[in-house]
Amino acid sequence: MALRIPVNHLTMKKLNSHSHGHTPLSWKCNFASDALLSPQSSLCCSPPGHVQPLFVTCASGAAPAAANLAPGTPVRPTSILVVGATGTLGRQVVRRALDEGYDVRCLVRPRPIPADFLRDWGAIVVNGDLSKPETIPATLVGVHTIIDCATGRPEEPIKTVDWEGKVALIQCAKAMGIQKFVFFSIHNCDKHPEVPLMEIKYCTEKFLQDSGINHTIIRLCGFMQGLIGQYAVPILEEKSVWGTDAPTRIAYMDTQDIARLTLIALRNEKVNGKLLTFAGPRAWTTQEVIALCERLGGQDANVTTVPVSVLKLTRQLTRLFEWTNDVADRLAFSEVLSSDTVFSVPMTETYSLLGVDSKDISSLEKYLQDYFTNILKKLKNIKAQSKQSDFYI
Fold it and tell me: Model confidence over 348-371: pLDDT tens digits?
């Protein structure tokens, strides 16, 4: 007898409002009667009276009866599905889980260049696409835990994967009896409803919490790995480094540490149903990161500063045209990162809860020092080999 998986029906509507003399856009997601949540559960992610250029309002239909599955082969607690396994964080989660003895399955979109490195590590790769809900159920068979590291690609609409895809994934997980769901979100996403990506993350948190699935939500501040391409490499190559004039501070964290803490949390029943935030030891401004890279790289950076006012103006212009709306959505996130905001939280209680020593968490200084030491050593060796191969006639 086939198992019917209730996949959501989303009706995307443009709603016009003339408050404050402008016409904002919004997404309204109405779930059909076979959705997971009860009629009384409404995820309204924007505060009353708040007007914004783009937001998500989530309403849901009735919950289906629990799937009546006949007894069969028990699902092993070590079986994990990692969604977004090829990403900066996802690959570290896969690597760590394999090292700790988990049976890891990776949901990967069909792609011209196969994710062979995941197979080489010992993971099982299955093809699936969150933007195509019909591909999801087969990937969940025999899975105990889902770790969701996925996010949409820069070239696609934010709602496609980060909202519609995640809702479908959670619904399928509920219907197929997945026993734990770990979702990565963004720190302070509940405080920035004007930013589509953060609004969607907050709505997804709420949808997961109301689904009834045993879950853990982990909010993140920033990845140290992202600083290599943004600052370290351009400085070494004597190219322009782009920054803003805002005093935003971000407590960057090594994705290897995030993966390690995630696997610890996975085994800790005390964090079931909890919302955790992971942050690095110290919050850094853009200017401080650039100065650190200059010192460790031994050369000055060619810094091009973009005023926050230019970002805001660019976003307003791109919002005027339907085909540039996705660009505007991502610029909105850039504005938050360029404001007078601190993306950090005290980690003492979290370390205590997880039984982790703060000394075992990498600092940005140590992370970048290791990078520059290794890369400069390689460059020195390449230069030496180049000199040995020079012949003059």
Answer: 999 999 999 999 999 999 999 999
Residue corresponding to tokens 């650190």: 292
Q: What are phi and psi of 11, to 5 degrees?
A: -110, 110
Tokens representing 280 are: 């690095």
* C-alpha span between 103 and 263 (Å, rounded): 13
The C-alpha atoms of residue 119 and residue 105 are separated, in whole angstroms, by 10
Contact 166, 204 (CB under 8 A): yes
The crossing angle, in degrees rounded to 10, of helices 255-266 and 90-99 is 50
Residue 112 has what pLDDT?
74
User: How far is Cα of residue 62 from the mean position of the Cα atoms in its chain?
Assistant: 29
- b/e map 247-259, b = 16+ CB within 10 Å: ebbbbbbbbbbbb
**In angstroms, rounded to a whole number, what is the distance separating the alpha carbons of residues 229 and 389?**
30
Tell me which residue of 123, 350, 343 sits closest to 257, measured CA to CA: 350
Q: pLDDT at residue 60 above 90?
A: no
Integer Cα distance of 327 and 165 in angstroms: 20
